[in-house]
Amino acid sequence: EPVRRVLLLGEGNFSFAASLCGAAGTHVVATCYESEEEASGRGGAAESIRRLRERGAEVLFSVDCTKLKDHFLPEKRGFDCIYFNFPHCGRKAGVVKNRELLARFFHSSAEVLIEEGEVHVALCNGQGGTPADQPRREWHNSWQIVAVAAGAGFILSNIHPFKAETIHGYKCTGYRSQDKSFCVEGALNHIFTRSMPLLCFKPMICEIELGSRKVSYQVPEVLVDKINRGFLELKSNHPVQTIREKFTAELSQAFPLQNIDYCLPLLHQGHLNNVCHSSIFWIILSPEETPSTEEMSNGMANAALFSHVDFCRDTDKNGWVNAQEGCHISKQYCLRPSLLPYAQAIIERGAFLPGTLHVLSGPVFRKCLITPYSMPVFHEMVFVCAVNRGTENSCIQMLVNNIKTSIRALHQTVSSFKMNIDLQEATSFETTELNDFAAFESQLSKIQYFICMETDTAGSCKKGSCVGIIRTAHYELVSSELVVVFASLNLDLLAMLICGISDWRMLWTSDTRFLSQFPRGELRLFKSFSLYPPSYVHDVSFWVPDGEQFDEVAFHTIARQVSGEMVVSIELIDSFHQSETGRKSLCYRLTFQSCDKALSRQEVAGMQLLFRKEINRRLRVTLR
Prior knowledge:
There is one protein chain. The chain is α+β, with helices and mostly antiparallel strands and 624 residues long. It folds into three domains: 4-194, Rossmann fold; 230-264 and 339-516, Bira Bifunctional Protein, Domain 2 (BirA Bifunctional Protein, domain 2); 536-623, Ferrodoxin-fold anticodon-binding domain (Alpha-Beta Plaits). The protein is 25% helix and 26% strand. The protein has 16 helices and 24 strands. It has helices at residues 15-20, 36-40, 45-54, 68-71, 95-110, 145-150, 239-251, 293-297, 340-348, 392-414, 436-444, 461-464, 491-499, 512-515, 552-563, 601-618, and strands spanning 4-9, 26-31, 58-60, 79-85, 113-123, 154-161, 188-194, 205-210, 213-218, 257-259, 267-269, 282-283, 301-305, 333-335, 357-365, 377-388, 419-425, 449-455, 466-476, 481-490, 536-543, 567-577, 584-592, 622-623. The strands form five sheets. The chain has a seven-stranded mixed sheet with strand order 3-2-1-4-5-7-6, sandwiched between helices. It has a seven-stranded mixed sheet with strand order 10-15-16-20-19-18-17, with helices on both faces. A hairpin with a 2-residue loop joins strand 8 (205-210) and strand 9 (213-218). Helix 7 (239-251) packs across helix 10 (392-414) and helix 15 (552-563) crosses helix 16 (601-618). The longest helix is centred in the middle third of the chain and has 23 residues, at 392-414. The N and C termini lie far apart (62 Å).
């Protein structure tokens, strides 16, 4: 087995290094900032240094933790783990200087650490500035270690008490650069790992086969990393696919079942009744390659990602994309916001078996405001069943009971938290009580029932966790009048609630530490690999163009795009009407935070500048 190389920095009396030395498969490189003469004069240091050398460890002196690359040849770098216990600039240095020390240390560590390596930093109680510190200092008075580490591309992946009493022979020393001990009660060991870099989306085009021709269309930039991810492929171990499979297996015990996921086009043509146009991702095909209605109905399969162009064309005040002059609105296409139109088409074409549960599933796309449970893309699962009139209520009850049973069974395999699943009549909800998923579904057609899931940690059932809806429709078909029951589930919301995933963006991470927690066909309680990510607040104020309605959905969508989904909250904090001119000014507060990547203050500042530029260009606001 390869030897694990461990680097220890800032050793005082080398007692910590001596306690690690001798472990099987570990090579210790122990260093300190002082010269050998200065270090050896500390109590017990000479004996620890002797023991280290006897056991084959390297002991180095005058090593500057901010310039590690200078102390190790390229072939001697590649450390698996770096320890820095109780770093300090010395004497009475304040928090600002110690933050600067940590910042330079993390940048230096990145140059000598292997890709999967860890950096361990032990700090006294309160210094780190994380919620794990008890009591917790005010942010400005802490070392802000997670934000500082983010500047060098590190995320906090674990944190636990530093138990000095369990380390054989360990004695802390170095209080104010003297051979004196200091209090380590309540101290914490912070374990950092490398973050994946922030994504930089390049222009892309999605090409699809349509009959005998290939056509290309612009993919909205905010969706570039979410098109064709293959989460619902047969061999996928993504939790949304596992939930889908479990539901299919459970419902097949109660209903004859037919999956019809094949060839569902990503693009939808034409008008969507009652749906706010500004919540749709509109697409324009090349004029000479615009397909016929007949070709559209044949399905668009074999989507393949190539390159991408701009975020979207300009839109008018009604939310329609401005096409070339003379382009009729019927030529407009959009990324499908729902699978319901395809389910309805199956019924209308008569391509169904009465009494059989037809199942459709796939990603759907919707522009929406930035909130914890609002997703511009999620995986929808739709169930369709045509039954004789008068039996629809028993069909609904049977379907709901099986859905409830499936959800409970999935939840019990993962968590011991109490969970409630309710079927609530749509008339009991106010519009303001609906989450984004339910609110949009309400626009498509009348809903009879909402399926709500509530756990001990999920909060309000009404506001946060409507995971599905049920509606019915009457169709005059060839032989008799049938009632069609439609049920729709948001698989992403289910995955979040069942697996304890607090941020929808984590479902789309490309970091392998997410999917590695979910073996094929299993659901588990998710453990975050990025703890206490730093957040940054910026305000923006502007004048709204005279006589125009401000498009808040477009405003939020631009924020999603320019930040790469790093904006987690947008709050209107001030609105001002200038009586003399009639002009209106708005002030919004944006909060930036990543759930899986290192995000630095400098990177956020760049995002904010780009955001200001883009809202000025696209929404024609006048910045203040």
